[in-house]
Every structure is written in C-alpha cells, then in structure tokens.
Amino acid sequence: MPTVHRTPFGHVHGRTETDLWTLDSGNGVRAEILDHGGVLHSLTVPDTDGVPGPVVRSLPALDDYTDKDNPYFGAIVGRYANRIAHGRFTLDGTTHHIPANDRGHALHGGPEGFHTRSWQAEGDRTDSAARLRLTLHSPDGDMGFPGALDVTATYTLDTAGTLALEYTATTDRPTVVNLTHHAYLNLGADDILGHTLQVDADHYLPVDPDSIPDGPPLPVTGTPFDLTTPRPVGERLAREHPQLALAGGFDHCWVLRRENPATLRRAARLTAPGDRRTLELWTTEPGLQVYTANQLDGAFTDGTGRPHQRHGSLCLETQHLPDSPNRPDHPSTVLRPGETLRSRTEWRFPHLGAGK
C-alpha cells in the first residue's frame, strides 16, 4: 500500500521550515522530496536481485542544498531551464533582462531561480499511488521575467515503481517558461562511464564555447552523439570531437523525435553495468539535455562523505530547447494568459516491470 510521510529537515537560513516528504510505493521503490527547491533528495530502487539502492546522487544537509554554488542537485529548475543568451530576450516588442549567472548568460532562471525557493507542499495517497503536490507563485518581474506565474509540480509514485513529475503553469501576462528536473543519476556504480545510454533522437544541438546553441540541429550519425542504440557512456566520451572538447563531455540538448507534441513517449534508456538496474525516461517535452557532470570536482559530498566527482553521475533533463526565446526556429516557450502549460516526465524501471 503506498504511503506518504512528512518529517522536518531544517530551516532555510534559520527561518523557513523545510520538510522531507517520503513517498513509498509499497513495493520497494521510495522517493524522498524536499519542499525547498522541489529537490528529489533520494530515490531508492531495488536491483534485479531485489536489493534496494540509491539511483540519484544527493547532498547530506539543507545547508548544502542552499549553498550558492550547489549545482542544482535534484532540484526543479525554472522559470527558464538551460540558457538564455546574454540574459535577454524580446517578447511582443519588449526586451527583458535576466541576471547573467553563467559566462555572461542566464542559466536555469538566474541566480535565484525556482531551485532556491520554498514551495508549498501537500501530500496524499490512493490505493495505487502516493503523491506530493508542490505549488509556487512567481511574481511579475521575478528574475526579470514578465508576468506573475503560478506553478504546480506534482510528484506521483505508483505501485509499479514509476515516478512521475507533472508540471502545470499559468500566467497573467505573456512570458516564457521552460521547466526541468536536475537529478544526478547513477544506477549503482562508481561512475557512469560503464553505464549504457540510449537517446531516442536523430539530431542534437551543437554549442559555442559558452554552451549557447551554435547553429541548427545536426545529425548524430557518425558522431559520439549517436545514441540511437545503447552505447557505453565512457566509450562515447573517449572519442575525439570538438563538441566534447568544448564541454568536457556531454552538456548538449538532443532534439527528440516528435510525432505528436502532446504525446508521452520514451526519450532515453539508461542501464547500469551488469544490467542490474534500468531506467527509462518518458516525456512530453521536445528536448533532452544530457549532462555528464563535467564540472563536478569533489567540492560537494553525499551523506557518507563520498565526493561528487566529474563523470560520477549524469543528468537527463527533459525540457524545451535552450535559448528558445531568441530562436524562432525552436518550439515556442511562450505562455500567454488563458493558456496552461502542461508537461509530464516519468522515470520508469523496466527491470521491475514498470511501464510494461
């Protein structure tokens, strides 16, 4: 039987109380979520022998999550995930400026994006699922974005072991919105180099030295970005390619195959060494940012004191394409009054029978 539990986790800057919400499927899969940043603090999944283990990397304490240098561990990211070139865009003839926090560009909504906010939280359960509903009000002008935005992010863990994250958002003025989740994944190994990864995409976006899209999508064929069949991550990263050299690994957006933009379809499949655990990522989003933790340097550790190192984990961030407000050839991220943004991503674990 699914359950929901709430326990205190600390206070943000000694003031705002933060709780840890535990969603338990009743069948071995358990998710722990903070209402600060909407952080997925832990996700425990049994392997093929039934032995439970963590599949996301985490930080030990609330102070670590609120550290200004925390690289978005497990957080919900917005108002605009990924990068906006030079921190500016023009919408309906008006230019808006977002604080630049990454090499002169705006990254993940600016320095005080949604990952820094305390969300309102409410948990409930049914016979088939445990659920946590998080809500956030982002006022007009927040980090330079126009329009007051009301966001709901709902985590649902069902008895099959599937964890879903569904977003909705509405605005009172035209604005741009791009939400994602920044979990650092490792399915049970020292690093992710021995994991195999498949991405259901035939094109990717090349980037310039500042990680801003540089030209139109390019075919993956004949490049290390060809993940149309399962490939060992380490083998891909070891290949010589100017794009890998620029980013120090993968930090690129794959353009997912889209027959119907509103349809939930598979984006990626990640498998641990020895096939002990498999994760399938399903989404309604048009893009998938794959980031192989190229910038982690051991400055942050997990609850056991183990440092988070380069290529020790990877992120699979379902989202719209980077810098879309400045790229009319990309799918639009504009949200207008009277419209509702809807987005859904699911983490499925086929080795448990989830999603079959």
From TrEMBL:
UniProt catalytic activity: alpha-D-glucose = beta-D-glucose
Spans annotated as Disordered: 318-342
SUPFAM superfamilies per record: Galactose mutarotase-like
Short name of any one Pfam family annotated for the protein: Aldose_epim
This enzyme's EC code(s): 5.1.3.3
InterPro entries listed in its UniProt record: Aldose_1-epimerase, Aldose_1/G6P_1-epimerase, Gal_mutarotase_sf_dom, Galactose_mutarotase-like, GH-type_carb-bd
Keyword Cell division listed: no
Mitochondrion listed as a keyword: no
Enzyme class: isomerase
Gene3D superfamilies to which the protein is assigned, alphabetical: 2.70.98.10
Keywords recorded for this protein, A-Z: Carbohydrate metabolism, Isomerase
NCBIfam families: PRK11055.1
Entries under PANTHER family matching the protein: ALDOSE-1-EPIMERASE, GALACTOSE MUTAROTASE
Protein name as it appears in the record: Aldose 1-epimerase
Species, as recorded: Streptomyces rhizosphaericola
